[in-house]
Amino acid sequence: MADGLNPTDAVNMRQLSDAKRQLENKMKSNHDQAIGTATMAMAMANLPQAQRPGDKTFAVAGGTAHGKASFAVGLSASSTSGKWQLRGSVSSSSNGDVGAGFGAGYTWR
């Protein structure tokens, strides 16, 4: 049976198998990227941060899941009054993806 070409043509087994393989490959790629991104978030979430007023902290952390791994580096600081906190980090996964985050906070009573 020849390949179907028109919208109303039937597909042959080779066409169906090719489409299935392409879909499976895309799903695996998406899964691997999602796991890599999740490990980046795990690494960034586990970065220790400055605790006391005036502290500055440089930190490194890692994350792993389902055979994927990531590392993160970050810097955090607390103002001398302890009212302001700043934090920034960069993470990279074994997939080659890179992500970054930044946060600032103000504390009052």
Automatic annotation (TrEMBL):
Sorted alphabetically, the keyword list is: Cell outer membrane, Membrane, Protein transport, Signal, Transmembrane, Transmembrane beta strand, Transport
Q: Which InterPro entries match?
A: Coiled_stalk_dom, Pilin-like, YadA_C
Ranges where the Trimeric autotransporter adhesin YadA-like C-terminal membrane anchor domain occurs? 48-108
Major subcellular site: membrane
**Among the entry's GO cellular component annotations, what is one?**
cell surface
Where in the numbering of this chain does the Trimeric autotransporter adhesin YadA-like stalk domain appear? 2-34
Q: Where in the cell is it found?
A: Cell outer membrane; Cell surface
**Which GO biological-process labels does this protein carry?**
protein transport
- Protein family membership: Belongs to the autotransporter-2 (AT-2) (TC 1.B.40) family.
* Protein name per its UniProtKB record: Trimeric autotransporter adhesin YadA-like C-terminal membrane anchor domain-containing protein
